[in-house]
Amino acid sequence: INGASPRWAEGLAELNAFINARRDLPDFADHEEGIRRRAERIAEGAALSAGKSYDRTLLATSDEARNLLTRFSPEEMRPEDALKRIQSAWRSSEAAILKHETLTGSLAAIDTALAQKRPMDALVERRELLRRYPDFETDRRVVGKLAQILKTEQDLVVRNDEPIDAVTDDHPVDVPTPLTLAFHARARTDE
Predict the structure, then answer these.
(1) Using CA atoms, how far apart are residues 110 and 117, in angstroms rounded to an integer?
(2) Dist. CA 49–CA 2, nearest whole Å
(3) 103-140: string of b/e by CB count within 10 Å (b at 16+)?
(4) How far apart are CA 151 and CA 6, in angstroms?
(5) Distance, CA of 121 to CA of 134 (rounded, Å)
(6) Is-above-0.90 flag for pTM?
(7) Rg for the chain (alpha carbons), in Å?
(8) Model confidence over 28-64: pLDDT tens digits?
């Protein structure tokens, strides 16, 4: 769990192996403080790394390490501050992973729509992505996709320069000439 790119899952596996190997020994209680420190470090580190590498498996590693931390902490000395830090890191990483997955899915949907020559569908997908995450408006991949969408739409527009003769004949009408029925009465004026 040390180094430039720690392997949190392997560190957790080693910690679990250590616990399983020494659980029944009489001096196991002496090792609980070290177990708590390592579990806290793995839980927080895996949660932070998950958000940077967009790896959901690290969130599961963080959860398991947090459970170890809780299990080996005495009830009266529960590390609430550490648990809050871990939970905060876990939530922010979950949000970052979701944001990355949404971006990746939207870009794939845009590519599919462009491949099928449906630029308006691609534009709708881009608009939905920007509605959900407005900060992607300046992302170079999203800006590049907009240029591709506009180019595809422009390519689909066909110009026709063939002359079209004007229609000079009246269209035949199937309706008879209009007839108005009006009541005509004359009143006598000599009375």
Answers:
(1) 10
(2) 13
(3) beebbebbeebbeeebbebbbebbeebbeebeebeeee
(4) 44
(5) 19
(6) no
(7) 36
(8) 888 888 888 899 999 999 999 999 999 999 999 999 9
